[in-house]
Predict the structure.
Amino acid sequence: MSRIAYVNGSFVPYNEAYISMNDRGYHFADGVYEVFSYNWKGVFVDAIPHFDRLRHSLEALDIAFPLSNKSLLIVMHELMRRNRCREGYLYLQITRGVAPRDHVVLDPLHPVLTLFVRPHVFKETPPLLKVFTTPDIRWKRNDIKSISLLGAIMGKYQSARQGGDEAWLYNDQGFITEGSATNAWIVNNQGIIQTHPVTPAILNGIVRQRLLKIAETLSLPVEEKAFTIEEALKAQEAFLTSSTKGVHPIISIDGHPVASGMMGPITDKLQRAYWHFQHTLTKDYDE
Ligand code: PLP
């Protein structure tokens, strides 16, 4: 299958998709990104909250939003079509632009917008995941979806070397903030769904936001309150969420099984409800 990327206004084959040596994304990770899931109905799931978060990230860095939501969606669908991708992810990156290497460039630059696609078949039955905890060594603005992911990558490597699928990051007080590329959840020993509140310590996941609405519809109790590693180890259930994974159960933390070491009933309910939500969507957003 031919692979086509989008680079600053042009659809180009992968091997012709070049970024300048002086792109500030390359020199300084001076840029942000978003990852959209695209389902078999041809819909970008929760596209508008993704655009809202992209706008938030760009505003924090004083980078202009390059296109309207509508124009971006046209480009995104066209990229899917050109790649003959029926289901998968779309990665969107925007950097501040191109300029000779200097920490500060006061003149506004032309932002560089790149998109690429990764085909993926989403499965109704999620895999059972293992996580290992590692210190959260990232910066203090995790609400910005920065392309600088070193802290996350180092955590995930640490977990992967022990056979983990994801790293759960804990802060200096021993509270889990989130996963390296996912939001972290437990069903605590009182049966309450718990996840870190929205602060700059976490990325407010689009699936996280959707799942909170789903839990409310299902009348499931939720508390947006940080939990410790010890609380997670005593939890009835644990799971993670992201656009690439949806809702995935966690069956062990640091090698210790979570409860019975199987997917719990609340995770099952939420996972099914999120699957159903995604697959009943017929358009990106309502006019
Ligand atoms: N937290 C971090 C650090 C992430 O990188 C991601 C996704 O990339 C998430 C949470 C989940 O966000 P979303 O549900 O928008 O995919």
